[in-house]
Specification:
By secondary structure, this protein is mostly helical. It is built from 5 helices and 2 strands. 74% of the residues lie in helices and 2% in strands. Keywords: Membrane, Transmembrane, Transmembrane helix.
Length: 183
């Protein structure tokens, strides 16, 4: 009987999480992919990088909203550490991958927006991997200095990611006393 109720609770949690993540993930993925497609058109205009920054603000809003609403709900309803860890894992992946696309797009629009060892004619996988690495290092606040934003839009993008990382982690730590570990 207890096993059956824990299975339904398990399904209920993932169903609720999926419904909440669907809108945010759709917005983030759509914006990220639109950047790459837009940048591949080779249109050069000084304001294009600021459009990407503006769209990154929109993504940041959706991620902050998801963090605040969903984490509050999960902590308020289930108090399970595993549920909170799953939400944090999804949020971290969403943030790191979406900012990787942002950095990559800024770089392919203007190779001088970042100081890096990359050359402008490298493969997509190599370049994207470099910015995935940069995003993860930025999220963790390590900052080795091997990739450095040079342009104003690149610096704003880094500031947004650092803000999100602090927000997600501080919000989680502030609510840690409400989380219970099941034995």
């Amino acid at each position: 009987m207890q096993k059956k109720s824990s299975i339904s609770e398990f399904k209920g949690f993932y169903k609720q999480l999926f419904k909440k993540l669907l809108l945010t993930t759709t917005v983030v993925v759509t914006l990220s992919l639109s950047y790459v497609l837009f940048a591949s058109l080779n249109v050069t205009h000084p304001f294009l990088s600021y459009i990407i920054v503006f769209l990154a603000f929109i993504k940041t809003f959706f991620i902050v909203r998801l963090t605040f609403i969903q984490l509050s709900k999960i902590i308020g309803e289930s108090h399970k550490l595993s549920h909170v860890l799953i939400l944090f894992g999804v949020l971290i992946l969403l943030i790191v991958f979406s900012f990787s696309f942002d950095y990559y797009t800024l770089y392919i629009m203007d190779v001088d927006s970042f100081k890096t060892s990359l050359t402008g004619n490298g493969s997509f996988i190599r370049q994207f991997f470099e910015f995935l690495y940069f995003s993860l290092i930025t999220f963790s606040s390590v900052g080795f200095g091997d990739i450095v934003p040079i342009s104003v839009s690149g610096k704003i993008m880094v500031m947004l990611e650092v803000f999100l990382s602090f927000f997600v982690l501080v919000f989680g730590i502030a609510n840690i006393n409400r989380i219970h570990v099941d034995k």
